[in-house]
């Protein structure tokens, strides 16, 4: 028997859809309904709850019946019909995303952390096995970040402070997405749809790495010439992966393709010069490098934020757009 999920973990699992399924039913941790139910969740979904007994689904509570936290608390998990999963998801989204002014509400930093952890879970899934459905989940996660950043002026500060010990690619994708959204907003990209496109570019920029051999990605020593060539294919591969997806904006696809281009034309895969590189690509490129330098990687220790800025300023002028870079430094309260 699975153990009882703690509240925040349960929220993450539902939000990132890490739920068990069986015969048209989905298993849901009860903690999302009963823990602090009076504080966070005034609008519990009215749906049938089932329990699984000797391989048969038995009704525990019908949609019309009222909730009894006591009855629910006797079960770690309940089952609901697949078609009602959206009700449960929006219940969870309400808890995570709705700014709550009540004194004992889930605090902003907690909500942000849940969202970031959920994003990691979605991306983890994405890199395991890619599917259109998982891309849709990524789109949803990015939208939630944009939503939070638009609605809560303090959100971006909190998000920039989140650190993590998750596997590099996952942490890197989510970190790059968050920074890209924040930097985009600072550069006066105000439309939510545009910030969504930009955030998705950050989240998916390295998606082509699913086609690079794991041994090369995780290698801790220096790479051989051939291995580098192999790695470099990931931007074009990433573009190939998303290019026919009609839900993804062309600018997002371009950023995936162009995130390793350099201002002076020495980048890859196309060797574009600065005026040929799209704005979104430039933003993602800067956030990508910044996130990489400030994270532990298989071959290098993380640099503190301001050292990373120093390094980028002194060594990457040929590569990145300095006007955009300055705005990133300002976001973090640095001096140029
Ligand atoms: Fe990359
Ligand atoms: Fe990257």
Task: Explain what this protein looks like in three dimensions.
There is one protein chain. The protein has 17 helices and 5 strands. With 336 residues, the chain is mainly alpha-helical. The protein folds into 2 domains: 7-97, no CATH class; 108-331, Orthogonal Bundle (Hypothetical protein af1432), CATH 1.10.3210.10. Strand 3 (49-53) and strand 4 (56-61) form a beta hairpin. Helix 7 crosses helix 9 (168-186), helix 13 packs antiparallel against helix 14 (250-258) and helix 14 (250-258) crosses helix 15 (279-293). The termini are far apart. The protein binds fe (ii) ion (2 copies). One fe (ii) ion binds at residues 172, 205-206, 288.
Distinctive features:
mainly alpha, Hypothetical protein af1432, 17 helices, elongated, binds fe (ii) ion
Supply the CATH class of the largest domain. Answer: Mainly Alpha
Predict the CATH topology of the largest domain.
Answer: Hypothetical protein af1432
The share of residues in extended strands comes to 5-15%
Separation of the first and last Cα atoms: 56 Å
Q: Helicity level, as a percent range?
A: 40-55%
Name the hetero compounds present: fe (ii) ion
């Amino acid at each position: 028997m699975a153990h009882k999920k703690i509240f925040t973990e349960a929220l993450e699992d539902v939000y990132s859809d890490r739920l068990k399924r069986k015969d048209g039913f989905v298993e849901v941790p009860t903690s999302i309904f009963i823990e602090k139910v009076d504080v966070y969740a005034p609008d519990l979904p009215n749906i049938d709850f089932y329990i699984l007994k000797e391989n048969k689904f038995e009704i525990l509570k019908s949609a019309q019946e009222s909730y009894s936290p006591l009855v629910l608390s006797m079960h770690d998990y309940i089952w609901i019909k697949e078609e009602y999963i959206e009700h449960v998801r929006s219940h969870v989204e309400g808890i995570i995303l709705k700014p709550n002014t009540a004194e004992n509400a889930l605090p902003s930093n907690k909500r942000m952390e849940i969202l970031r952890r959920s994003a990691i879970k979605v991306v983890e899934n994405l890199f395991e096995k890619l599917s259109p459905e998982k891309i849709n989940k990524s789109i949803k996660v990015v939208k939630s970040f944009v939503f939070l950043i638009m609605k809560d002026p303090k959100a971006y500060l909190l998000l920039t402070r989140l650190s993590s010990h998750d596997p590099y690619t996952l942490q890197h994708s989510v970190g790059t997405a968050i920074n890209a959204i924040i930097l985009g907003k600072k550069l006066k990209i105000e439309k939510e749809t545009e910030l969504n496109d930009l955030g998705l570019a950050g989240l998916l920029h390295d998606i082509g790495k699913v086609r690079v051999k794991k041994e090369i990605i995780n290698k801790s020593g220096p790479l051989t010439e051939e291995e580098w060539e192999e790695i470099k294919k990931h931007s074009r591969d990433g573009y190939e992966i998303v290019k026919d997806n009609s839900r993804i904006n062309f600018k997002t696809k371009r950023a995936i393709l162009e995130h390793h281009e350099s201002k002076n034309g020495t980048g890859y895969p196309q060797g574009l010069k600065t005026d040929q590189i799209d704005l979104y690509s430039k933003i993602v490129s800067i956030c990508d490098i910044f996130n990489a330098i400030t994270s532990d990687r298989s071959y290098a220790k993380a640099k503190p934020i301001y050292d990373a800025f120093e390094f980028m300023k002194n060594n990457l002028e040929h590569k990145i757009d300095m006007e955009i870079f300055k705005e990133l430094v300002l976001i973090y309260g640095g001096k140029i």
